[in-house]
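Running this now, will post back.
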Amino acid sequence: MTMGEQSVRSRSRTRVLVRTLAAVLLVGGGSVWTARSGIGIQDLQAQLQHHPAAPALFLALHAVFSLLFLPRAVMAMAAGLIFGLWWGLLWAAAGSLLGAATGFLLSRYLTGGMIELDEGTRFGQVLQRVERGGWRAVAMLRLIPVVPHSAANYLLGLTSLSFGSYAMGSLLGQLPMTVAFVQFGAAGTALLAGRPDWLQPTLVGAAMLAASALLPKLAARSEPDSRA
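Update: finished.
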């Protein structure tokens, strides 16, 4: 195993550890808060789901998280914890797409062509392949766990990729991870409410995480060998 491969695996393990720790802190903090406030998690969900400002505030925070390189997994878990499974999936997917679009458009229109992609570098070559591959390549890039979400937003904004292809690829590529962490948030809701149905969303979330890790490898194997 080369030093580069070891570094990639180390970063991947670190990101998984950070996400797991974020999940524990989010659920633990929610438990402490609800216990001290005396407000049940189901009552809180009912209030937020019917409050007209709650979705807009969540979407705005999601965009800020994306711009500041903060993990979007935290927002997906918060969506599942606060809004429940189905509403959480809706708002988490919308927020993920909004954050991706914001970074992409800021990079594209604020740089004004001042930054040129160096095709001789590794990043430049990757971006050129994504540019040629369209929305499918964007979706595969989103599934790679070692590629930071926010960095990809800014870098893809430097390409000539169409916004439609970028948006579709981002939505589809981010969806498995979004579903996984919303499921974890929903499992946290069940735990906080003292319900026994926390196991199913936990297993579904774990399955989606596994799928998001396997899909890029399967796609790479299905591609023809460029050296042939």
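The chain has a mean pLDDT of 76. More later if anyone needs it.
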